[in-house]
Structures are given as C-alpha cells and as structure tokens.
Amino acid sequence: MSGKANPGLDTSHTTATSPISALAPRPINSICSSIPMNAKTAQGTSSSRNYIADQPHLPSQITETKQPNIDSNPDSNPGSNPTRTPERTPSEPRANSMRTPFELSVAPIRTYVLRTWITGPANSLPGRNWRMNCACGRFAGVASGVMLYTLILTLLLGGIPAVAAAPRAGVARIDITPKEPVWMSGYAARKRPSTGVQMPIQAKALALEDGRGGRVVLVSVDIIGLSAALSDRVAAEVASKYKLERSQLVLNSSHTHTGPMVDGNLSPMAPSDEAELAKIRAYTNTLAEKLVTVIGASLGDLAPARLHFDYGEAGFAINRRKREIAPVDHRVPVLRVSAPNGQIRALLFGYACHNTTLTAEFLEISGDYAGYAQAQLEKEFPGATALFFMLCGGDQNPEPRSRRELAEKHGGELAREVARIARTPMEPVEGRLRTALQLTRLVLSNMKQVNYPVQAVRFEKGFTLITLGGEVVVDYALKFTAQYPRERLMVAGYSNDVMCYIPSLRILREGGYEGGDSMKWYNLDAPFAEDVEERVTASVAAVMERVRK
C-alpha cells in the first residue's frame, strides 16, 4: 500500500516463536553478498499456538490404530482372569476355538501346500512322461502354494507397502468484482470511490489431495490484503462445512492497489463518510461468503491429477529501496496441475513484486499486472485456471509503471514465462502431503505484540510452499531458499493475514518505509524489535520440521 510519496504501501504484524536449537540459520546479512541484484545491474520467546495436520507426534491431530496390549490376554497374565483356560500339553492338538485368527487363516494354505507336494496338483501337466508330469506338477503346486502362503502371511503382518495413491486436484473460481462504486485501497492519495471496472477481479481455489488423507486448499484473492479476522471467519466456516483443518487452508492476497478496500485492512486510509464505510463492510461480508463458496467448489471438483513443479524467471521487479545495489528475486515458481490425459487444469504461479503498476490516479477496479497475467494464461490454455500468489515483494516494485499499457506488458512477460515452463518437462510432485501452521508473536520496540501466521505445505517429493503473513521483504525468500537447498521451494508473503510490513534485521536497522515508517497505516505505533527476523526464522524452522517428518 502507498501514501503519496510511497506508492505501494503495506504494513506488518509481529509474532514470537520458541527458539529452534537444532537450526542455526544464516543471518540475512551474511547472504546478501551472494543474492541477485536489481535487473538494472544484475539478473538475477513467547508461547505459540500450533495448528498441524497429519503430524505423528500430536495424538490430537491423527487417528492411531493401537496394537492390542499383551497384558490384556489372560494367557499371558494369569492373575487377570479367575477362569483361565487350562494349559495343554505340547502333544495335545489345539482346538479351533483355541487357535488365533492368524493360525486359522493360514491352516488351509499349509494343508494345500502339503497335499500338493504329496499328490501333485489336480490337473497334471500334459505329456507322455508321467514321472516328469508328477515332478513338474508337484513343483508348480508347491511354488504356487508357497507364493500364496507368503502373500497371506505378509498381508497379515502388514509387511507389504501400500501402493502409491494417485493425487487428486479440484479447481474453482468466483467473481468478486464490486457491483457498485466502492472505496479503493492501497494509496492514501485517493479521495473518491472507484469510477468503473478495468477488468473483473476474482478469487480462485486449488484443492490438492495426496490420496492418503493429506489435503490442502490454496486460495488466490485479487485484493489488497485479508485481515486475520476475515481469514479466521472463512477458516471456521470451511472447517464446519468441509472438515478442513486450519493448517490445510492458505489464503493469499495478490495485493493489487486497484481493488476495493476490505474491512480491517489499512483502515487509516478508509473514508470518514459513514455511507462509504457501510459499503466497505457490506463488500467484506460478501467477500467472506464467496471465499467459503469457492473453497467448497474446489473440494467438490476433485479428480485424479498429475502435479509438476519448476521455476522460470521474469525481470521487471526492482528493489525500490536502493535500486542499484539491492536484492531482488526474479524467480517465477510454477505448479502445473494436469489431468491424467495431460490436459492442463490449473497453473499456480507467483512473483515477488508489488502490484502497483497502476498508481493512485487510476480509479478503475483492476488486478494490475497479476490480473493481466492470469487472463492471458487462461486464454492460452483453454479450460485451465491460473492462480497468482504474491511472494515476498514487500520492497519490490514493477519498473516502469504508471500506465495501463505497462501493466499489460508486465503481465504478458510473466504469462509468457509461465507458459514456457508449463510446456517443458517439469519435476514431478509426488508422495505424502503434510501441512503445518504456527501462530506466533512478533514484538514491537514498545513491547506490544502482534500475532503472526507461518505455514508450510509440503509434498514428499517436488514441492514445498512456505507462507508468511504481512508484507514480507525479499530478504526472507532468499534466506529460506539458501537455508533449505534441497527443497523445491516457493515462499509467499501476504498470506492469511496482511497486518503490516515484515522487515529483515538489515532493513529494520536501515529504517525507511519498510523498516518502520509504514506502521502507522496499519494502526501500529512502533517499529519491530530487533529480534523480528530471528522469530520469523524460528517459526519457519518449526513448521518445516513438522512437515518434513
């Protein structure tokens, strides 16, 4: 989000996490020397609440099949039952009523193997040499019997690994364009409502299942930012309706600065007129209902799918703090979702750059460059749904900007790169899906605290998504990419709650807009304390530890 002098202003929240002693992350300062620079010069501890899905160490989150306790068997615990069955001598045959289920199940197979060895199978192999027939018959009978015996035995003992289950995916979209002129969000310089619609804005949902019980719904919303209250409301409703756990839902805002204002986000920019405020509240309520609807629709659309992931690159983002020598992240992560016949059903992609090509003087509703990119991809791949995730673009701006043609140009560059990647061989995404969400606290310099959501979504092979709340600066994406080099990683900011800017220690010490000056637009009266990066890093380590088990 932006004021007059700072186009693209956004603010951050704070959260505290417990230290992770097993992890010794590299400070951001230590990796800045090796990160890509701007396109112009180079390409390039307090308590926490955990919401975890499919974590073996949390009994409350999973269903366990308990093995019977041997001490509950009267035969192994003489004092437990006054009417114990008398013991038999070794020479006595054991009656069927005294045999275990395992013994009863394998007895017929054992009998079949012995009988086949003695008499041969019922149908001997044809031929003139009856001795050869008998030998071959007995061999074939014994072999088949042993194979069957081994199969049943292994099944009963749980020794055969489960066949890899095929993933499923579902996609849905819903229009969230305001039906009337509304107050727009992102620029404090605006003094009147919207005057029209340049392009419709949408919410889109991608539901993923691993076929083994793991699932997640990834939601992209063409909006400036969702508050914690709005996200929690949506999460509570989908939990009730669709049994979706909180860690299994990701709500990412595209951060367009030409969209409607949402109640609870950037409220100091809201108008004082009560009629306009009432329209903001009404739109927010409608948005919440539509988000629940689109999430449910994606779950209802689940069908067998193939998943692939890879990276491209786009170069129009610059670091707006120090244009000549400052870090950028030009990677374009792409998750391709295809039907078994190869037809593309969805493309999830992201980029670390503010959606601020269109500046304060634009008063028409639009998705900015991200909206144009999605529209072009859906035109290029008929029947597919394109979803944009805003990555860690808190200190990144598009360059050049301020004209509609430039928004189309940047969107076109991004779409062409996503399409190129989607048409090439990509790394498969497979295995078990795990999710984890931790709500921690970040501390301000005046000791006030802000809740902060950190989330991880991980398939065993090929794709890991880390999501962070707030307007996260690019340093964090570069840090976690270096910290988890074996992960096929996508790091998104603006997720689940956009409460303020989240600076790194480097930016906090440098000061400026992202370092603390922007906090007033989020109703916060102090910058973060110097442990902000440490707390965010510890929270990421905590959720990554859970999803990697």
Detailed description of the structure:
The chain has 549 residues and is α+β, with helices and mostly antiparallel strands. The chain has one domain. Helix content is 28%, strand content 22%. It is built from 10 helices and 22 strands. The strands form 6 sheets. Strands 1, 10, 12, 13, 15, 17, 18, 19 and 21 form a 9-stranded mixed β-sheet that branches. Strands 7-6-5-2-9 form a 5-stranded mixed β-sheet, covered by helices on one side. It has a two-stranded antiparallel ribbon with strand order 3-8. Helix 4 links the parallel strand 6 and strand 7. Helix 2 packs antiparallel against helix 3, helix 4 runs parallel beside helix 5 and helix 6 packs across helix 7. The N terminus is likely disordered.
Q: What is the strand and helix layout of this fold?
A:
Blueprint: H1 28-31, E1 49-53, H2 101-119, H3 130-156, E2 168-175, E3 184-185, E4 196-197, E5 202-209, E6 215-221, H4 228-242, E7 249-253, E8 259-260, H5 274-300, E9 303-304, E10 306-313, E11 317-319, E12 331-338, E13 344-351, E14 364-365, H6 368-380, E15 385-390, E16 396-398, H7 404-422, E17 427-443, E18 449-461, E19 464-468, E20 471-472, H8 474-483, E21 489-492, E22 501-502, H9 505-510, H10 532-547
Parallel strand pairs: 4-14, 6-7, 13-15, 19-21, 20-22
Antiparallel strand pairs: 1-17, 2-5, 2-9, 3-8, 5-6, 10-12, 10-17, 11-16, 12-13, 17-18, 18-19
Helix pairs in contact: 2-3, 4-5, 6-7
